[in-house]
Amino acid sequence: DAKTTQPPSMDCAEGRAANLPCNHSTISGNEYVYWYRQIHSQGPQYIIHGLKNNETNEMASLIITEDRKSSTLILPHATLRDTAVYYCIVRAHNYGQNFVFGPGTRLSVLP
Amino acid sequence: ETGVTQTPRHLVMGMTNKKSLKCEQHLGHNAMYWYKQSAKKPLELMFVYNFKEQTENNSVPSRFSPECPNSSHLFLHLHTLQPEDSALYLCASSGASGANVLTFGAGSRLTVL
Fold this sequence. Notes:
The complex is a heterodimer of chains A (111) and B (113). Chain A is mainly beta.
């Protein structure tokens, strides 16, 4: 079973920041927080991951709370092409630890 | 193009047919995966291969038979499938089973009549 909880759906206006929350209250000290997204009927695409510190790349920012029990993925200027299902996954970097996908959050970016 | 190529992209087969899905990666990865995504359901991990050896079979029915001849190629052989097996089958690869990032192919959409 997935170890994360996400809202099933969210809307965001085009050009505004999209903030996608994820709860992972049972996360272990060696588990990372990953975000992937899946545009309709395509393979999931890696976005970002982090352990404790906030992370930023060209796609998004990841904000992890100090207690690591929740995180937020931020798309700073959402476009229509960001409409997708976003998956938050926690996973340790140990051999045999696989990516377990939950239902994710369906983000709709509206014009 | 992600570097993971799946063929065919679409497949329609009868319940008595035998067909195969193919996955190929040129990323130098050592681990390959099959996931199944049924309509309105999360991705389900089916099989994991590390260095050509199967390291996980997630209670998949025997009508699905994986094959990994080398670290770059992964097959899913299909026989006597059921209509409920209709789904998007996704292949992925990673540097190793504990590595950071999965890279997915575009998927093979299977319809079983």
